[in-house]
Amino acid sequence: MILWLLFILAIYAPYFMWANKTHTGWLSKDENSIKVKGDEQVDISIVIPFRNEDGVIQILLEQLIKELPDSLQSEVILINDHSTDSGVESIQDLLPPSDSRFKLIHSEKEGKKHALSTGINAASNDWIISLDADVVLPNKWFDFISQVCATAETDMVILPVELYPTPKLFQKIEALEFTVLQGITFSYAQQKKAFLANGAHLAFRKQAFIDFNGYSAHEHMASGDDVFLLEQIQQSPTHSVGYSYYADMSVTTTPNRSLLQLLHQKARWGSKTFKFKSKETKTIGLLILVANLGLFALIFSQDWKIFFLGFFIKSICDLYLVVFPLTVRSRKTLLKYIPLFMVVYPFYIIFVSVATLFLKPKWKGRYI
Fold first, then answer.
1. What residue ranges of the chain are covered by domains with CATH 3.90.550.10?
2. Which of the residues 123, 154, 194, 349 has an alpha carbon 20 to 30 A from that of 173?
3. How do residues 208-223 score in pLDDT, each as one tens digit?
4. 250 near 145, Cβ under 8 Å?
5. What is each CA distance from 318 to 10, 61, 170, 321, in whole angstroms?
6. pTM, entire model
7. Rounded distance between C-alpha atoms, residue 263 and residue 353, angstroms
C-alpha cells in the first residue's frame, strides 16, 4: 500500500502544483489583459478562410455587413478554399454591390494555411483578424476589436472563443474540455508564457506575419496556423504576444456534429502537441496524459480506497481548471455536468491519444 501511495504522490503532486499555478494565473487574467482605452479605433482586415460552409458563413457575413462602419477603411476578405458546395454563390449574392471593402477571392492551393496566406497578402491594413467561417459575433464586436488593436503594443493578441450551443451530451463534455483549454490559454498568456491560441478569433500584425515568412516554417503541417505562428512570435526577442479578455466579447463557434467529427478534430490537435519547440508545452501535454493514465494504473492496486484517493486528488485538480472559467464565462448551465466529465474524461483522452496514432485526420471533407 505504501508503494501505491508513493505512486499517487509522484503522479499527482506535480499535477496539483501545475493546476494550482494555472488556476492562479486564470484568476489574475485581468491584470495584464489589453484593455480598451477611449474611443480610438484602427483600420483592420478581417480574414475568413472557408471551405464548404454554406448555411453558416452567410450568417457571419450578414453580421459583418451590419457591423463595419463607413467611416473606416476596414475590410472583410473571404477566401474560398476549393469549396464544393453552393456557399460561394450565396456569398456573391450577399456581398454589397460596389463596396470594395468586401472581397471574395479564391485560394490557388488547397489547405487552410494557403487560404489564410492568400487573404493576408491581399489585406491592406496592418492588423489582421482571423475568423472561422462558422463563428457568431457578439453585439458591438467590431468596435471592441478595433479599439483593442488601437491600444495593443504587441504583435499578436489572443482573443476569447466560446463553444455553443451544446444540445447533445458529448457536446457538453466537449464544451467543458474547451472551457478548460480557454482557462489554460489565458492563464499562460497572463504569465507571459502563451502557447495556446485559437485561429477562430485571433489578431496579429501583418508585418509580424511577413517577418516570419508567413506559415513557411510549418507549412508542411496541415493545421496549427494559430499556435505555431504564436510560438514564433513568443520566442522572438523582437516581437511580443498579448491577450485581451472580455467575456462578453467572446465569439461563439459550434461544437462538432458527431463523435467521429470530434475524433478527427482531436487527432488534428493531438498531432501538434509534440511538434512544439517549447519544452514547457510538451511537458504540460505529457503531465495531463500521465495524470489520466495514472487512474488506470491504480486499478491494478486492487484496493478501491487507493483508486478513489487518486481519483479524488485528480478531481480536485480538474475542478481548479474548469469551475472558475465556467462561472466567469456565464456557462453555469454546464456546471452540473462536471461530475460526469470527471468520470468520462480519463477514458476519452486515452482513447483519443491512441486513435491519434492510427487515424488520418479529416477536415472539411479532405484528409490532411
1. 30-176+189-256
2. 194
3. 999 999 988 777 666 7
4. no
5. 17, 38, 18, 5
6. 0.93
7. 10
